[in-house]
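Appendix B, example 12.
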Amino acid sequence: MWKKFATQTIVCTLMAIFIVGGVNWFVDPYDIFNAPRIAGFNANKPEIDGHERIYKALMLRRLKPRTVLLGTSCTAIGMDPFNRNFGGRAVYNCAVPAGLPEEYGVYIDTAIEKGATHVIIGLDFFVFYAINTIEAGFGDFNSVNHLLSLDACKSSMRTIASKLKTPYLDNGRKDPLGIRYDLEKNGGYRKQFHEFFRNRFPLLRAAPFSRNHAVHWEAFMRILDRAHATGLDVTLFISPSHALLWEKIDATHGWGQIEEFKRKLVEANERAAERHGKHPFALWDFSGYGELTMEMPHDDPEIAMTWYWDPVHYKKELGDIVLDRMFGGNFSGGNKYADFGVQMTRENIESHLAKLRSGRSRWRTSRFALFMQPDALPIR
């Protein structure tokens, strides 16, 4: 009797494992098994949202791009792998929400292993001062681990039932259609700016901010050392976040913290080059106060912004100009914005920071004053 019971238990367990594994493989909610896509069943993969890290890691292995884009959601949304400055090269956007330098390093190792020769990294202020660190076991991107996962099984059921679209394009860039839908549902661009400063920014600075956190800077320096040692070309750029974001950071952390961030980036880049007897990598700064970064949201929710989704996330159209400026193209009118973007070095960092302070001062006495009223955007 006990033998029969044990046999039945084993058989039922194996059947359950087989069913769960089969469903997860066939539905493939995170698009990691390369299973067939069937319209109306599993063609769309909304559950990738929240599971970007393994999805993009395995796509990196599958696609074997020559150039890889890394960074946070800013890069994921704003940088287009199909941009003409890449000259038809295979490019993949591997940026992930709230991505950390330690994670970039893992992706870079995979990229090098798969033949990548160039990495472009978007650098964001809060990433380098985040409290959160890389999760234990990050980098063990084995799709088999998700084959028998109950979490994946739940995602499979939601994938079948959902009518939502896949949040990412095949090249890794965040699909702007989903972003536009959410924005319109929330009442337009000006409300989006209000919502960010009132609700999201306090979480951003209260939860992840720690000025004494050195682990991210150390990981960044390891990336630079690894790149120099392997011959990997690296292009670095500070994201072109909206001028209002820098005003908010000044109000909460102080302008000196912003300048410290830029000085430390320059010093890390220069020292890494000296350690390896190489030239520093190109390090661009697209933050600041200018025609593009000072675009203001309109009162009319039907009027779209040209360059921004919100104070942090820039649109592909601005990302295209950033790529023009970094790589010398004029495919998106980059030549019209000669003052947009500066390569930072030891020689020019102080004069560059002084010029930014001057530009900020001029702006604050003109357009910014309009947004300091009680009913305006909550900057302070």
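The first helix runs from residue 2 to 27. Residues 1-55+146-163 form one domain.
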